Amino acid sequence: MSRTSAPPPAPVDRRPDDVTLSHGLKQRHLSMIALGGVIGAGLFVGSGAGIAKAGPSIVIAYALSGLLVMLVMRMLGEMSAANPASGSFSVHAERAIGPWAGFTAGWAFWFLLCVAVGLEAIGAAKIMTGWLPGTPEWAWAALFMLVFCGTNLAAVKNFGEFEFWFAALKVAAIVIFLGIGVLAITGLLPGTDAPGTANLSGDSGFMPMGVDGLVVGLLASLFAYGGLETVTIAAAESEDPVRGVAKAVRTAMWRIAIFYIGSMAVIVTLVPWDDPQVEQKGPYVATLDHLGIPAAGQIMNVVVLIALLSAMNANIYGASRMARSLIARGQGPQALGKTSGGVPRPAVLFSSIVGFGCVLLSYWRPDDVFMWLLNMVGAIILIVWIFIAISQLILRRRTEREDPARLVVRMWWYPGLTWVALAGMAAVFVLMAREADTRTQLLSSGGLTLALAAIGCARQMAGARKAAAAEAPAE
């Protein structure tokens, strides 16, 4: 799939009889997917809970978690630019560690995306029923599922167009919010006075809940960054995968700094951190209401709806491509791996059905089965990041030895910063184990990972025995 001048490696993302995916994504699609991928509903709404726990120090929490995410994206970008593949980190883990690792990372991430699709459908349906009381939530969720399942069943350029415009609207909303916020902070917004540092240093200070509050804010912020990995999956279907990945990774730093850290700084400067509206309405709505912006709630509901629909679209896409890649490498049922017209349609349908199954479980078994699913995916993204870091440590040495020209993107200060990132992930695991809520997620996600790893190892050993038997001379 690579289009560099360097000689391509042996194909690892598909079997010889697998039909290749199309290359229908243009550079503008990939750039906007990368840009909008960091702006999710978790930023618009979920960040309120972090602010309520950490106070103004949420800015530090987002900066620390953002630094870790930048390192992960740099590592993933290095491997994906050197070997673009629709299986992304699953392919890299298989090449670096072994088939069991690719199986574990890939199916864990697929499961995470399917559950996320269900959650996003539920969130979007709640907004619609708020606008149209009396309409059933499940019907809205089903409608959104059908729309984006259909979008992903068609040519990949349709997915790219949807994401291009969704991302453009999200970026515009954040830029306008930041512009209004800066004007208010400097006292240039009509009808407002500059707040100074009163909200940052007053009312129990910058860290009102101490280190414990900062830790809770750190954990909340860390998982708000999910979705950045999609760009490396999508890159394999773009016109120029290497250039697309390289550009996305190199701009990740300023995107995180502006969208996440910048937003949090504006919010806690303008609004008292303990204002109950921050958590109830969401920090962006609370800030605009505080400034007296007309119809702020409805405006932000539209933005949140767009963010949810964008995430649904991207997660159905990402889940289907990850499933196709795994199946093409012999890591799943072959019936789901068929590709026609450059689109893995059975994988799209299966991923969408599992996502809608999660929606139904939220109504049928909200307190046991659905919560069990949520806990199982709670720490999956962190486990995936560990696979990425370990794979990068191994593949960087191998690539430098075999084909250094492929290192279009390089991890900073290798291997030191890779080890720093791994230490940071280990520290997050320790912090999760200390908190009751996140401890349950950690144990549930760990159980799922161990189960997948056991299955992956069993499959790998069975494959090795089969290969050895095939090579053995006949008696």
From TrEMBL:
InterPro entries: AA-permease/SLC12A_dom, Amino_acid_permease_CS
Superkingdom to which the source organism belongs: Bacteria
PROSITE patterns to which the protein is assigned, alphabetical: AMINO_ACID_PERMEASE_1
Domain annotation Amino acid permease/ SLC12A: ranges: 29-439
Residues that span the membrane, as ranges: 30-52, 58-76, 97-118, 168-189, 209-231, 252-273, 293-314, 347-364, 370-390, 411-433
Alphabetic keyword roster: Amino-acid transport, Membrane, Transmembrane, Transmembrane helix, Transport
Pfam families noted in UniProt: AA_permease
Localization, UniProt: Membrane
UniProt key word Metal-binding: no
Location, primary (coarse class): membrane
Topological category with respect to the lipid bilayer: Multi-pass membrane protein
Protein name as it appears in the record: Amino acid permease
Organism per entry: Streptomyces albipurpureus
